[in-house]
């Protein structure tokens, strides 16, 4: 039954492709909820499975078995499988915890600094302008919500496009997208395959904000041109930010622009089931993980002499 | 955009729009110029009211120009702290976690694709 614990470790590898499909087929705001919830459940099942493997390994050690009040040896598959798996699981869990703690610490520090500085500044509505030659703009959540925009970004856009940008950032803040992004980051630290899902969640959040902004300003093309112009302006100037490894696929910006320019896709009911494959995969992972943990618990009770096999 | 729609927007959003226009211009603007620059249906008196409010908050300064005032954004110590905050955030490569940035880094080939999309827009 220990094999059941491997299911939550393997299934996340299917998630990136299924996540893309979900975003393609559903409205971005709906997809964002499904993707984030799935990523969290997949991550949770993965951590639970790893934790159970670690415990299994520990209870196999003769020195530790009495601590678990085991009177019989724990019945598991061959030690040649269980012990290396437990060692590997311990390593992976430790590494995940360390990178997660480091990331959380950095993010919290940067966020606090941004908030403190933004609060100290007299506000023109919710806008916080930074005098910088690099075109950049982002939503700064908190109380009150702020939009941070550099002067270079403001100058590279026309008046209507600036309104489009503000509408997009306000959509992020109003919908609380930072919670989704934080959840995606948390999941990404639990399983390597969930990193690709995190990128899809980021794209879903942007797409959702684009759609809300398009409704607010009443013009999809305006949002599309604002995004394209802002991206090109940012690309032309040398960036101080490190370049990320070039990806073979089309980046998120053209996808967003294309989605806004395309006529509203008719989301047929026939295409929906494929969009729900991710949820099926998540449910399977959760079920297998739960069954694995329950079985482990049962085996421990047998070893403690509380239950008969 | 109609007058009614713009006049009904929350005061904060109007202040942000006016402030953005002043920063984008880079030179002091009169209320009339701001109104033209915004290109929306805002009444001149509304623009003047917003500019006066921003001036009272100390976010914009003004200088005499003819019979009225020309307004420009204040660049002072708070401006510097804002710049510091930006540097702090920039240091973190993965700050997109909590901060949703408007546009992400472009992949190779994205630039051409975007230019083509913008050109198509111009044709139609």
TrEMBL record, chain A:
Q: Where are the transmembrane segments?
A: 29-59, 80-101
Q: Which processes are annotated in GO (biological process)? A: proteolysis
Zinc as a keyword?
Answer: yes
Cofactor field: Zn(2+)
Q: Where is the Peptidase M48 domain?
A: 122-184
Check the record and name the InterPro entries matching this protein.
Answer: Beta-lactam_resp_regulator, Peptidase_M48
Question: Which key words tag this protein in UniProt?
Answer: Hydrolase, Membrane, Metal-binding, Metalloprotease, Protease, Transmembrane, Transmembrane helix, Zinc
The entry's free-text remark on the cofactor is: Binds 1 zinc ion per subunit.
Supply one GO molecular-function term: metal ion binding
Keyword Transferase assigned = no
Protein family (similarity comment): Belongs to the peptidase M48 family.
Protein name (Swiss-Prot/TrEMBL)? Peptidase M48 domain-containing protein
Q: What is the lineage of its organism?
A: Bacteria, Bacillati, Actinomycetota, Actinomycetes, Kitasatosporales
From TrEMBL, chain B:
Question: What Pfam families does the entry give?
Answer: Penicillinase_R
Q: Name one GO molecular function term.
A: DNA binding
Q: Which UniProt keywords apply?
A: DNA-binding, Transcription, Transcription regulation
Lineage, top-rank taxon, reads: Bacteria
Which InterPro entries does the entry mention? BlaI_family (IPR005650), WH-like_DNA-bd_sf (IPR036388), WH_DNA-bd_sf (IPR036390)
Q: Which GO terms describe its biological process?
A: negative regulation of DNA-templated transcription
Similarity field:
Belongs to the BlaI transcriptional regulatory family.
Put simply, this protein is called: CopY family transcriptional regulator
